[in-house]
Amino acid sequence: MVAPAPTTYAVITGGATSGHVVPALSIIELLVEAGHPRETLVYVGSDRGVETTLVPQTGIACVFLSVDGLQRGMSLTKVKRNLRMLPTMMRATQLATQVLVQHRPRVVVSVGGYVSAPICRAARHLKIPVVTCSYDSKPGMATKMQARYAATVAVAHTPSTLRRAQLTGAPVRAELRHLDRGASRAASRMRLGFSADAKLVVVMGGSLGSAVLNSATESLVAQMESPSLANVAILHIAGSRYMEGQQLATEIKRPDGSMMYQRIAYSSNMSDIYAAADLVVARAGASTVAEIATVGIASVLIPWRDAAENHQLTNAKSLSDPGGAVLLEESKLADDVFVQLIGDLLGDESMRLHIANEARKLGEVHRNCSIAAVVEKAAELVVR
């Protein structure tokens, strides 16, 4: 009896934070654009990550595994957690094998994160080609391990120390790759509820939020009556865990009724946000940096200084060193410095335009991302 042809083309894996989930969903979009039906694609993520909320609403078939990550450091708590991690990851690998046997994909695509480890180990055992995507300037632990046996490593930056690295650009959502900020600005402002003539600053600390950026934003709001910040509005994406307990109300309006400040937990409507903004203040996660370059917008990047191997600083420098962003390291972040910097940038339209143009030049590789072609080539290697 001849076995039926596989109905699943690719399994895409990785997750926990939007920094992994959004690129995974972007790869799915790129594969669909390349002609692969959505029903032939399956997402595998963590049962404790943001993917449990973000992925089901897309209609993509999804499986969530129970996984745990390696804790860096030698504290008693971390050692105990690492010991508990071993049986958890062994069970996850067994379940991952069952998932791959059930779906029989031609290729597995990993965007990193701990949940990608059991799927990629199972794929290697089952001789299913793996494509690992490395969009951080410094690859993470899972990515470095998978790169040892991956058919190809799709990278957003060169040079790369990873084996079989191929420059493809970072996976970015279609709505951002095709965004015309100028043409969309007025309608986006209207949908978001901000006046057409306000200078809009968007502050975002990633899907988990950032206490440091939230504190700096409060200081900025406190100074918004000063002449340098006249007619400024702020959209503050604070993270769900920081929505409560803040000194500021979730909305503050000016006497004329226009929005001066608004705080939200999270938004998936980034096309409107990037189109409406005059300036973005953000952490320097790889996805955020790639999006800023893709849409071409002026930004202030404040890397998280406790990121593994300080990789966010490297991400930020990939954009700021060529002039496509302003770098403000967390160690130098003081209220007066932050307020002065934002005021200076808002007051110099030509400088913002120059930064935005330089960012957009750097984003060309992402707007023309070739990951789908790399995945297709790897899928041809499958042995049945």
Description:
Helices cover 41% and strands 16% of the residues. It is an alpha/beta fold and 384 residues long. Strands 3-2-1-4-5-6-7 form a 7-stranded parallel β-sheet, sandwiched between helices. Helix 3 packs across helix 4, helix 7 crosses helix 9 and helix 10 (286-295) packs across helix 13 (349-362). The radius of gyration is 22 Å and the shape is elongated.
* Secondary structure tally, helices: 15
Protein structure class: alpha/beta
Q: Mind summarizing the main beta sheet?
A: 7 strands, parallel
Portion in helices:
40-55%
Span between termini? 15 Å
- Please give the radius of gyration in angstroms: 22 Å
How many E strands?
14
Integer average pLDDT: 89
Which regions are unreliable across 5 or more consecutive residues at pLDDT < 50?
A: 1-5
Order of strands, widest sheet: 3-2-1-4-5-6-7
Give the overall silhouette.
elongated
Compressed to H and E, one letter per element, the order equals EHEHEHEHEHEEHHEHEEEHEHEHEHHHH
